[in-house]
Design brief:
mainly alpha, 70% helix, membrane
Length: 108
């Protein structure tokens, strides 16, 4: 398992964990994990990441919120994961811009 998969796994686990307990720096941790995860996204995965982030941030995370007892937690999990994907999308945008502006810099 490569470093990129480990970072994505840690980000997903953090999104799940922070849905069940609050922590003062949870948003910061999710943002940093998202930025780190976004650094490793290349090629066609970039488009998929941007689409998923837009969907979750626009309210897709609340689609299962009406499920009794579990809906609140599912919404929180996907809301947290939306924050990770949003930060990863920001990194993808910065990397794509840098690749266009810096000669010789290619995507991985």
């Amino acid at each position: 398992m490569g470093l990129n998969k480990i970072i994505w796994l840690v980000a997903a686990l953090a999104a799940i964990a922070f849905a069940f307990f609050t922590f003062e720096y949870a948003a910061l941790i999710l943002a940093l994990l998202g930025l780190a995860s976004g650094f490793f996204v290349v090629g066609d995965h970039r488009r998929s990441l941007l689409i998923a982030a837009i969907f979750l941030i626009a309210g897709g995370n609340a689609a299962l919120g009406s499920i009794p007892a579990a809906g609140e937690y599912i919404t929180a999990i996907f809301g947290n994961y939306g924050a990770v994907l949003g930060a990863a999308s920001l990194m993808v945008i910065v990397m794509a811009t840098a690749e266009r502006l810096i000669p010789g810099m290619d995507s991985k």
